Amino acid sequence: MVATAVHVKNRRKDTGCCSLPFLRSLMVVFNVIFWMTGLTFLAVGIWALISRHDYISLLGNNTYSATTFLFLSVGIIIILVGFLGCLGALHEIRCCLVTFAFLLLVIFVMEAISGVLAYMYESAIREELARNLNQTMMEGYGFVPAITKAVNSMQRDFHCCGADGKDGFQDWRYSQWTAMDTTDNIVPDSCCISPSDGCGVSGHPSNIYLTGCWESLELFLKSHLIIIGGIGLGFCCLQIFGIIFACCMARKIKEAKDFL
Questions:
Q1: What residue segments make up the domains of the chain, in order of their start?
Q2: Which residues fall in a coiled-coil region (predicted)?
Q3: Is 192 helix (H, G, I), strand (E, B) or coil?
Q4: How far apart are CA 150 and CA 168, in angstroms?
Q5: Which of 103, 121, 200, 210 is disulfide-compatible with 185, CB 3.0–4.6 A?
Q6: How far apart (Å, rounded) are the C-alpha atoms in residues 15 and 221?
Q7: Which residues in 182-206 are b (16+ Cβ under 10 Å) and which e?
């Protein structure tokens, strides 16, 4: 009789906001949201990587690429870890929930790092471009295929020419490409407003973009990095709730097993 009363008393405790059924539902809802954040990370990472990917070769270091690939990795890991969380919640597997909580902590750190890296690099991008862009363009164009492709894409996309200032097109006078070029072009054809073979000649200055590309590339990269940083730091807070939910449910499962 006493045992029955104790059993009923403990069973009544397993109701409300701390009950296993409630925590199970909470974990399922969390994992649906978790998967959505994973897809967001994947989408933003792919967008940042393939959106004018050529420009990356014009940067002086690999911070932008590293941040983007870290973003992609986080997205893939989130999707995989989400299945583990659902499995542990639906079948009340304590070891799965504990592992899930640990992996959420790892994801939290990765998201925070990607966000901090993005914001740190966003503040340093101006100095890096000022230091490296002109030299990279003037020495690499026409000799390094990746740089040649990147410069042509940048000048066409941003409607600019050369690296610096309002008269950026004059930078090409001092380039290795001009020194070695056998045509009459004073700028690459990608500088032309109406592109055609041999359009970058001195006889048609009105058909040439005059402004340098430095500021346009800076704004482009900063906009990407701000989005990456905001999502990385914003979504990392979500993992804290997941860790709390998973730990609460794991503890509840342990208490239920100890009672039995």
A1: 16-133+225-259
A2: none
A3: strand
A4: 17
A5: 200
A6: 52
A7: eeebbbbbbbbeeeeeebbbeeeee
pTM: 0.74
Dihedral angle over CA of 21, 23, 28, 32, nearest 10: 150
Q: Which residue has the tokens 């006078």?
A: 173
Residue 238, phi then psi, degrees to nearest 5: -60, -35
**Using the 8-state DSSP alphabet, how is residue 17 labeled?**
G
Q: Is the pLDDT of residue 260 over 50?
A: yes
Nearest 5°: CA angle at 128, between 131 and 141? 60
Q: Give, as one character, the DSSP assignment of residue 233.
A: H
Distance, CA of 7 to CA of 226 (rounded, Å): 56
* SS3 of residue 51 by DSSP: coil
pLDDT single digits (tens) 118-170: 888 877 888 888 778 888 899 999 999 989 999 999 999 999 999 887 888 88
pLDDT per position as a tens digit, 198-207: 888 765 568 8
Scored b (16 or more CB within 10 A) or e, 66-105 reads ebbebbbbbbebbbebbebbbebbeebbbebbbbbbebbe
